[in-house]
Design goal:
By secondary structure, the chain is mostly beta strands. It is 5% helix and 40% strand. The protein is elongated, with a radius of gyration of 30 Å. Keywords: Membrane, Signal, Transmembrane, Transmembrane helix.
Length: 865
């Protein structure tokens, strides 16, 4: 490149950067007392779905094997289980929290614990018991018990009489079924057996019907039904003259053609028979309905060529569907169906396209098109008041006039509740009459026996562990956990539960918060909001989102890393802004001030960090993977000489950027990872790297943390689970077990040194602690080598000793560890005459190690006689 061209390019970069920063700064505001903003364009986070299946794409051996398998199934009548050899397990077996799990070839032992939460807020809009997502439910009408499905489709049972109302049944499976909003959460159902116990029944995405007699913990595949390619729609249960019936609407393939099919079981879900009616998916659209107060099942079949529907009915006393109506009305779709038998009259509703509402009061013979400008499909109808129907998205809305118009209640279900974003709404018939209504919002789960009465709703959120957390950070000094959530803003809670077993949360920030960080010796907490706002609050005077001081800096639905200043006494954070410079945002006591770091990178900076041992070692990762290091506090940078494959990133608001961290044990060791099955380690401060991914099998690493000794690295790998790396074996090991959830997004991990806990945070399943059994580790696995320049005297000591701390402030934080690595002291000491005085007077004889938090942490071993 010619010199003149290079100079011109640099000038253009500088001018473009100045325009960009000035435009952003012009939108700044210091008003932090904002409420929930309307959130448009949120990118969806897709939980793992079964891989798509299309027999038309099979070739050679795969096609032959599939054809043989289907023929064998057909001959057997889709028999999956021989009940003469295997009987359903009716004994209830609860998950046993094993006393210890071993990982990394038994080098690490410990046990798991989940945080069960109680969300409340006295700051308006206040609420007494909030929660997080619920996307599905099942109701036992005989025993009056309810089961709930969380965002990842995990199964919980609710007990409203207990302090912790939620108890886990299965977090290894996703029971939501079809991901379509019209069918999500409708394939899991339940049938009461002759002894009134409750059997759960469910459609497999690629397999048969299945059932569970132990509340969803274990499952057996039933015979007769077959579903493929996630063609799972609805499962209905009705009473018959001889017992109870299960009807499943799903689909499978015949040859290369897909069909909607209806499967019927009259033996409580053990065996199914296929209805003689089946419908080609290329020609027909099918939906099914069980009206309230009735034991019939209806199938609405819309012919795509002329938009006419045919209504089929299965009476409780009949064995097969029969066609009963062919109305002249045409329909744009049959997205949702709802109905009720009231006073001997069948009332039906059909919704389609999030616009059209059709209403019938003669079992579908004639129809009235009551609304063609609606913004959402109907989600339910009142079981005894046919003029009342329900819909929802940002709120719950009720129509009193057959869907012609709707009204909400300003995000209140009843006093003490506050809700946004309806995800699930289901009305169930009780066994002895009446109804039970369950609603699931982004703000929690609620129930009522009269859904038309706004004041009747009750919360069942206390003890729910679930949160949609993008990020998290723990203040060890204040024993406080901060999580950055979708919708629920930032919630904080103590690391110690209440006497009732749950953790009381405080609302630190509203709306969607993408990142959270601590600065200035953990006295300040920072938030990155969904619309580009950066906010700052106090960790000791928090719990009120109105105290957050903030300004708008960045675009919507976008975030990188947010890292506390290397100067622990500075109330500031650093952000690689996606441009070619680093930015620092400082709180000056009243407002935020942004400064642009002078160094210009040759691309978009999206990752930043520094060595915790020597904070003059800075590291930056670019969007395209290039890695830069500095040894002079960011004045100059040099690109690594490593030429292998670099970690990638995803340009969005989630933590899917490259991740950089320095070793707490060695200032020259730095780690670099991100998208891809890659984990780079440099032993020379970033000059060169080697890839250490033996045993690792992940799509990306969203976050990782390094044990104080540097010997173990723990990684949160999105939907690929959680992993631990042993430096001694140079190998990765997956951390799994009964108490570890699957099919959820692991977003954050932090090693809590004061408690020897590895804390994992998820988007969907809340916060999990892995408490390490320190007796299985040596002191060298928990702490790092002592610093020669810092000495203790007298040493050995019989109790008290002093440590000189030159150039220290008035108070110095000190951690003292036992030889086994257990933290016994986490306190600040006053500096008197250039030294601090400590005591091991009440401790047993042995070797201890003190970590003194100076500008650069210092370590010293002490022998207690």
């Amino acid at each position: 490149m010619k010199k003149s061209t290079l100079i011109l390019s640099l000038v253009i970069i500088v001018i473009t950067s100045l325009i960009y920063y000035n435009l952003l700064e012009s939108n700044n505001s210091t008003d932090a007392n904002f409420e929930y903003k309307e959130k448009k364009g949120r990118p969806k986070i897709m939980f793992p779905q079964p891989p798509p299946f299309d027999p038309a794409k099979l070739e050679e051996k795969e096609l032959k094997d599939y054809a043989n398998w289907r023929e064998e199934l057909k001959v057997s009548g889709n028999q999956f289980t021989d009940y003469s050899k295997k009987k359903p397990n009716r004994e209830i077996e609860y998950f046993s929290n094993l006393p210890s799990y071993s990982y990394a070839n038994k080098r690490i032992n410990g046990n798991w614990a989940q945080k069960y939460l109680h969300m409340s807020s006295n700051v308006g809009p206040s609420y007494s018991e909030g929660g997080s997502d619920a996307l599905g439910s099942v109701y036992d009408p005989v025993n009056e018990e309810v089961y709930v499905l969380s965002r990842p489709g995990h199964l919980y049972k609710i007990d409203d009489t207990k302090q912790v109302k939620w108890s886990l049944r299965n977090h290894k499976r996703n029971f939501l079924g079809n991901s379509s909003l019209n069918f999500r959460g409708l394939v899991l159902s339940g049938v009461n057996l002759p002894d009134n116990s409750f059997r759960l029944v469910n459609q497999q995405s690629n397999g048969g019907m299945e059932f569970s007699d132990d509340e969803g913990r274990t499952w057996t595949t039933a015979n007769g039904a077959l579903f493929q390619n996630s063609l799972n729609f609805k499962t209905h249960v009705v009473k018959t003259p001889t017992g109870r019936r299960v009807v499943a609407h799903g689909g499978n393939f015949e040859g290369n053609s897909g069909f909607d099919k209806l499967f019927i079981s009259d033996d409580y879900g053990l065996n199914y028979r296929e209805s003689r009616y089946k419908f080609s998916r290329s020609s027909f659209e099918v939906n099914t309905l069980k009206p309230h107060n009735d034991n019939s099942i209806y199938a609405f079949v819309r012919r795509k060529s002329d938009s006419k529907i045919f209504i089929f009915k299965l009476e409780a006393g009949e064995s097969e569907f029969s066609i009963i109506k062919e109305p002249t009305q045409t329909f744009t779709g049959v997205d949702t169906l709802h109905g009720a038998l009231v006073g001997g009259v069948y009332y039906f509703y059909v919704s389609s396209g999030n616009k059209n509402i059709y209403y019938s009061k003669d079992e579908g013979e004639t129809w009235e098109h009551t609304n063609n400008t609606n913004d959402r499909n109907i989600v339910e109808m009142h079981p005894t008041k046919p003029n009342i129907v329900f819909k929802g998205f940002v709120d719950l809305f009720i129509s009193q006039n057959f869907g012609a118009s709707f009204a909400g209640n300003n995000h209140r279900l009843s006093p003490g509740t506050y809700v946004w974003d309806l995800e699930h709404f289901r009305i169930y018939d009780k066994e002895d009459g009446g109804s039970f209504t369950f609603s699931g919002f982004h703000f929690g789960s609620y129930y009522t026996t009269d859904p038309s009465d706004w004041s009747s709703w009750k919360s069942i959120n206390r003890g729910s562990p679930n949160m949609l957390s993008y990020d998290a950070v723990t203040s060890e000094i204040h024993d406080k956990i901060y999580v950055a959530n979708q919708d629920r803003g930032s919630q904080s809670f103590s690391g110690t539960p209440s006497q009732n077993g749950y953790y009381e949360t405080a609302r630190e920030a509203n709306t969607d918060v993408f990142r959270v960080a601590l600065s200035k010796n953990e006295s300040s907490v920072w938030f990155w909001y969904w619309y580009g706002r950066i906010g700052r609050a106090s960790t000791t005077n928090g719990g009120n989102y109105g105290t957050v001081v903030g300004k708008n800096y960045y675009g919507n639905w976008w975030a990188t890393s947010m890292i506390p200043s290397p100067d622990n006494n500075e109330d500031a954070i650093y952000i690689p802004s996606g441009q070619n410079k680093l930015e620092k945002i400082t709180y000056n006591g009243s407002t935020l001030i942004r400064t642009i770091h002078p160094y210009t990178f040759p691309g978009s900076a999206v990752s930043f960090n520094y060595s915790p041992v020597n904070t003059n070692r800075w590291y930056v990762g670019l969007k395209t993977g290039e890695f830069f290091y500095s040894t002079d506090g960011g004045t100059t940078f040099t690109e690594t000489t490593y030429t292998g494959t670099m970690p990638g990133q995803t340009d969005k608001h989630t933590k899917q950027r490259q991740v950089i961290k320095g070793s707490p044990a060695d200032e020259s060791t730095v780690y670099y990872t991100g998208k891809g099955n890659i984990f780079l380690i440099s032993k020379d401060g970033g000059i060169t790297f080697t890839n250490h991914n033996i045993g690792l099998n992940v799509n990306e690493i969203m976050d990782f943390t390094v044990a104080p000794s540097g010997k173990f690295i723990f990684a949160a790998c999105n939907f690929s689970g959680i992993w631990v790396y042993s430096t001694e074996e140079d190998k990765w090991f997956e951390m799994n077990g009964d108490d570890v959830p699957e099919l959820t997004s692991f977003t954050d991990v932090q090693y809590i040194k004061s408690k020897d806990i590895v804390r994992f945070t998820t988007y969907g399943s809340g916060v999990f602690d892995f408490k390490i059994d320190v007796s299985s580790l040596s002191i060298n696995d928990n702490v790092i080598n002592e610093t020669e320049s810092v000495k203790a005297f007298p040493n050995p000591t019989s109790g008290s000793f002093k440590v000189p701390v030159p150039n220290a402030s008035k108070d110095v934080l000190v951690h003292i560890y036992t030889e086994a690595g257990r933290l016994i002291t986490n306190s600040k000491y006053k500096v008197v005459g250039g030294q601090i005085q400590l005591s091991l007077k009440n401790e047993a004889s042995g070797i201890y190690l003190a970590k003194i938090f100076l500008e650069k942490p210092a370590f010293v071993k002490i022998l207690k006689e």
